[in-house]
């Protein structure tokens, strides 16, 4: 029965990724090209165990070639292609040129589209992509089979049987290509997660160490500052101006350390009612010099009442917004615009940070906010992640919209804080309703 043989073929096709997942087990890419070897073996097995009838070989070798290119890279792809051609040549038969044509078409399709494949983000689109590529040689094969049948060049007794075989064949190819993609994606996902966990661990340790050092430095600094202040009061000599200078600089160092400490631990310390508009305007004033230096116009527009309140930790909120605005300025070329637009919709208030910068493509957009993701030489890849965490800790939400070469809009939404009086009246109404 063809269906049994084809199910055996599915097992053979899935075996490389299954064995590979056990061997690699979420570890880094191994040195030895396991995947290439497994795919070569699977390719040979496909042909050895293929179902031969009507003078044709029914097997899933095209799926093997396509996946070798997509998941093993170009080199693996061509090696597997060569092995398949060789094995098929050894088997010989009347329709050898026909077999060559189909394998070559699978390899070429996979080769030309493998770069595009890497840009596909979602796994279901990848599944469709793999299926489409695997069907390229199948379409050729089916067409040629039809032509051969019409010329009576194939020993076909019953055409309806051939039609049912073709149906099963296409169906099994679709299933196999879909499954193999899902398995490969699961293996890759596991590897990515493992790497992310290790890096997060490292980052956590570093942040913890840095925070404790900053803490230790702050204490002697405070003592030194205190004594210097005393000495300054007693001193009547010409050193007075130096004292002011030293105290100023010490104050600055203290501020930097305090900022770092509040940044390293994004718990909300002092949650209070913050006037959002005031905060946004302060940020605009703070970053204006930086924007001017980068040749970017930084402007602010609002559509809310002056006194609108949000419940937030003022410093953390500022830090988060500064990160987003700084990213926007950095992404915008000379002469571009960055706008801070504050709007209220229902019980949420949103700060849109909109730039006319380089924007991001889908792939970049999907990675933004993940740990250590940066495209800058001196970037840390932490700003966005920390800022999202801060906003989410305030029951807010951050969304990104971006178009490559057009610009990006980061929208930071926070719940509006109702005045105590308003809350009261709402509660009263609820009570009345009850
Ligand atoms: P860093 O600024 O250190 O690179 P971030 O986490 O702040 O780290 O940003 C991560 C990456 O996201 C940046 O390197 C950049 O590629 C991208 N990015 C962030 N904001 C924007 C933006 N407004 N426009 C285009 N790309 C952006
Ligand atoms: Mg940044």
From TrEMBL:
Record localization: Cell membrane
GO terms under biological process: cell wall organization
Protein name: histidine kinase
Protein EC: 2.7.13.3
Entry's transmembrane regions: 31-51, 63-86, 98-115, 127-150, 162-183
UniProt domain Histidine kinase: residue ranges: 212-418
A Pfam family that the UniProt record links to this protein: HATPase_c
Listed GO MF terms: ATP binding; phosphorelay sensor kinase activity
InterPro entries reported in the protein's UniProt record: HATPase_C_sf, HATPase_dom, His_kinase_dom, HisK_dim/P_dom, HisK_dim/P_sf, Sig_transdc_His_kin-like_C, Sig_transdc_His_kinase_LytS_TM
Keywords: ATP-binding, Cell membrane, Kinase, Membrane, Nucleotide-binding, Phosphoprotein, Transferase, Transmembrane, Transmembrane helix, Two-component regulatory system
GO CC annotation: plasma membrane
Catalysed reactions listed for this entry: ATP + protein L-histidine = ADP + protein N-phospho-L-histidine
Main localisation: membrane
Membrane topology: Multi-pass membrane protein
Leader peptide range in chain numbering: none
């Amino acid at each position: 029965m063809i269906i049994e043989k084809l199910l055996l073929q599915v097992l053979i096709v899935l075996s490389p990724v299954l064995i590979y997942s056990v061997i690699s087990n979420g570890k880094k890419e191994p040195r030895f090209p396991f995947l290439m070897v497994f795919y070569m073996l699977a390719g040979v097995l496909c042909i050895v165990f293929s179902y031969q009838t009507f003078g044709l070989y029914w097997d899933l070798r095209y799926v093997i070639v396509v996946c070798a290119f997509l998941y093993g890279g170009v080199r693996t792809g061509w090696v597997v292609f060569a092995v398949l051609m060789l094995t098929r040549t050894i088997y010989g038969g009347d329709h050898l040129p026909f077999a060559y044509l189909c394998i070559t078409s699978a390899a070429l399709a996979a080769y030309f589209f493998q770069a595009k494949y890497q840009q596909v983000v979602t796994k279901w689109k990848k599944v469709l992509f793999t299926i489409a590529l695997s069907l390229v040689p199948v379409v050729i094969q089916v067409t040629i089979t039809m032509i051969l049948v019409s010329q009576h060049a194939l020993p076909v007794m019953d055409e309806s049987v051939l039609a049912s075989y073709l149906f099963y064949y296409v169906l099994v190819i679709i299933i196999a290509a879909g499954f193999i993609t899902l398995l490969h994606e699961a293996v890759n996902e596991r590897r990515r997660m493992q790497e992310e966990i290790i890096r997060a661990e490292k980052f956590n340790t570093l942040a913890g160490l840095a925070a404790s050092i900053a803490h230790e430095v702050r204490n002697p600094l405070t003592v030194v500052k205190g004594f210097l202040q005393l000495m300054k009061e007693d001193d009547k000599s010409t050193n007075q101006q130096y004292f002011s200078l030293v105290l100023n600089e010490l104050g600055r160092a203290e501020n930097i350390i305090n900022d770092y400490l509040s940044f390293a631990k994004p718990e909300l310390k002092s949650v209070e009612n913050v006037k959002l508009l005031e905060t946004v305007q302060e940020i605009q004033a703070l970053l204006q010099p930086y924007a001017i230096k980068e040749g970017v116009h930084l402007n602010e527009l609002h559509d809310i009442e002056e006194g609108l309140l949000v419940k937030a930790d003022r410093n953390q909120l500022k830090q988060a917004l500064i990160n987003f605005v700084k990213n926007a300025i950095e992404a915008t070329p000379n002469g571009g615009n960055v706008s801070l637009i504050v709007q209220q919709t229902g019980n949420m208030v949103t700060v849109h940070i909109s730039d006319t910068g380089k924007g991001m493509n889908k792939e970049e957009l999907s990675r933004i906010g993940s740990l250590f993701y940066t495209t800058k030489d001196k970037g840390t890849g932490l700003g966005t992640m920390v800022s999202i965490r801060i906003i989410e800790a305030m029951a807010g939400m951050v969304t990104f919209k971006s178009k490559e070469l057009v610009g990006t809009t980061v929208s930071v939404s926070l719940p509006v804080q109702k005045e105590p009086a308003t809350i009261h009246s709402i509660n009263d109404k609820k009570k009345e309703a009850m």
